[in-house]
Amino acid sequence: MRHRSRPFALALAVPALLGATTPAPPGADVTVVAKNLRNDRGVVRGCLTPVQDRFPNCDDPARSYKSVGHAADTVTMVFRDVPPGRYAVALLHDENNNGKADRAALLIPKEGFGFSRDAKVRFGPPRFGDAAFDVESGGDEQQVIKMRYLL
User: Fold this and answer.
1) Which residues have a Cβ under 8 Å from the Cβ of 23 and sit 6 or more positions away?
2) Three-class secondary structure assignment of 64-118
3) Above pLDDT 70, what percent of the chain?
4) What's the CATH fold of domain 25-146?
């Protein structure tokens, strides 16, 4: 008995056999607006990360996004083509542009900071879950963050 050929089934199987993959879902643009900076000195450093145990430092360059904008009363940053997932944003008003968060005695931040969802600070930075928001495929996201200063 002869089997009839199945061109349709073969057409579906060939891409899988050749290692073809389904295209990744389209990314979204995440716009972050930092408000209420106390002056226009230095820069605002922003990071966007999906990595819970690296928040708020974003020290996983392979999976985190970083941006720097000149300080002003309001600073806007856009992280482009971000894959779908759960993310959190941390901002630092680096007034002396030295690339780090300066601290006073007892580790109190001397410079401004802010987090997505305007997550509150209580004896240290917020947890990832308090600042986290969802980025969906093809849908752009905006986070407005009020900068805070302790000194």
Assistant:
1) none
2) CEEEEEECCCEEEEEEEEECCEEEEEEEEEECCCCCCCCECHHHCECCEEEEHHH
3) 85
4) Immunoglobulin-like (2.60.40)
